[in-house]
Write a structure and sequence with these properties.
Structural class: alpha/beta
Number of helices: 14
Helix content: 40-55%
Order of helices and strands: HHEEEHEEEHEHEHEHEEHEHEHHHHH
Largest sheet: 8 strands, parallel, barrel
Length: 461
């Protein structure tokens, strides 16, 4: 058990969740959070390039942790491959009334209804301007709660933060801003993204633009979003935000609080949506997998299902920053075990028909299964051939008996007629014997016919 679980978590659990988060930001800002000596060591197996940006590793810090760009470099020093700040709105806003952040200890999950609380684009841009630029930093953009022109708000965010970001995220999937998710509809989404890309080309040329979507989407929603993303040629999708659903099995005191649920209960549904988007876009758009990641196994599952990069946040509440190094080490072990030289080789391997990749271990299993199937077919064919041969032998044995009977009958027909009294007396007996032999011949022939009838059917097989 690490220092965080043994020393910090037992104390933190008695502190209000939002206050505890503020303390975490303060501790990181003042370099008070211990980190592994090898946290930032180069790991060639995990290095990757996505939408024109080079990442030291694919494990990132999701938006929501560092809303106001206070500790991006500190987070990178704990081993993250990239950090995403925000969500940031054009004007500062306080967010929803407190309490608005809840820890679900029994489920290792979190519910939040923060409502885009942040310092505003100008303040955040000023922090980023003063920051020593290192690693990869994404800026997550939102709209102000009472804004009537969403496209204008996102365009302002692009202009303010685009010059200082390595990529930009259009967040239309938070469940805590009224009407925001309606922007995921096909027509409003296309209109919004075209406006954002126009602003990008003007104020932040060359900076990739990504779209963050919700997990609570219908099949039609997913199809529409994928079609728009391909049509307007955005640079990537982040799948997914928190869910308003409450899966069966939650067992924590605050599980019925309103807001977005994140953590392990989101792992399965968000990964399914991720896989759906990978199929719908045919792997043509880079995906970032988010939702429920708490181990190297979780991260690997997202990658196999199409994620080029992954992000986490809620699991840090229960495992601390040391989790980042643990995930990277576990991810490397799993890649080696399955024969991948680099993490990019595993992206979408669960769908070889799209990615052109496959898991070597699974390929070996498939080969063994095919070999076993061939052996089974060979044994079945051998058994069928043996049965056919036995049928043929029975039919052959029946034919000599028929021939022998026919010869005897012919001999009797050729014998001279009896003229003596003794011969006349023997004639009835001979006739009776002849009739008995004929019956025996008929019986044998009847028995032989089924075998003869089976013979041509067997030969067809």
């Amino acid at each position: 058990m690490g220092w965080y679980k043994s020393l910090v978590l037992p104390i933190v659990r008695w502190i209000d969740a939002e206050t505890a988060h503020g303390l975490a930001i303060w501790a990181l800002k003042n370099n008070l959070v211990p980190r592994a000596d090898d946290a930032t060591d180069a790991t060639p197996m995990l290095e990757t390039e996505v939408f024109g940006r080079k990442f030291a590793n694919p494990v990132g810090l999701a938006a929501g942790f560092d809303k106001n760009a206070e500790i991006p470099n500190a987070a990178l020093s704990h081993g993250f491959g990239f950090v995403e700040i925000g969500s940031v709105t054009p004007q500062p806003q306080p967010g929803n009334p407190k309490p608005r952040l809840f820890r679900l200890y029994s489920d290792r999950a979190v519910i939040n209804r923060m409502g885009f609380n942040n310092d505003g684009a100008d303040v955040v841009a000023n922090r980023l301007r003063k920051r020593a630029r290192r690693g990869v930093l994404g800026a997550n953009l939102g709209k102000n709660k009472y804004s009537e022109d969403a496209a204008d708000d996102y365009a302002k965010g692009v202009a303010a933060l685009g010059p200082y970001a390595d990529y930009l995220v259009i967040n239309v999937s938070s469940p805590n801003t009224p009407g925001l998710r309606a922007l995921q509809g096909r027509a409003p989404l296309e209109k919004l993204l075209k406006a954002v890309l126009k602003a990008r080309n003007s104020d932040a040329k060359g900076v990739p633009v990504l779209l963050k979507v919700a997990p609570d989407l219908t099949e039609e929603d997913k199809s529409d979003i994928a079609a728009v993303a391909l049509k307007v040629k955005i640079d990537g999708l982040i799948v997914s935000n928190t869910t308003i659903d409450r899966p069966v099995g939650l067992n924590s005191y605050d599980q019925d609080e309103k807001g977005g649920l994140s953590g392990p209960p989101l792992m399965a549904p968000s990964t399914k949506v991720l896989a759906d988007f990978y199929r719908l876009t045919e792997g043509k758009i880079p995906l970032i997998g988010v939702g429920g990641i708490a181990s190297g196994k979780d991260a690997y599952e997202k990658i196999l299902n199409g994620a080029s990069l992954v992000q986490l946040y809620s699991s840090l509440v229960y495992h601390g920053m040391e989790l980042v190094t643990e995930i990277k080490e576990d991810l490397q072990r799993r890649l080696r075990k399955d024969g991948f030289a680099n993490v990019s080789d595993a992206v979408g391997a669960a769908f070889p028909e799209i990615s052109g990749k496959g898991i070597p271990v699974d390929e070996a299993r498939d080969a063994k299964a095919a070999h076993a199937a061939n052996e089974t077919d060979a044994k079945a064919a051998e058994a069928k051939a043996t049965e056919a041969k036995a049928t043929e032998v029975k039919a052959t044995e029946a034919k000599p008996a028929e021939a022998k009977t026919a010869t005897a009958e012919a001999a009797e027909d050729k014998a001279p007629a009896a003229t003596s009294p003794k011969a006349k007396a023997a004639a009835p007996k001979a006739t009776a014997a002849k009739a008995t032999a004929a019956k025996a011949t008929a019986a044998k022939a009847t028995k032989a016919k089924p075998a003869e009838a089976a013979k041509p059917e067997t030969s067809k097989d």
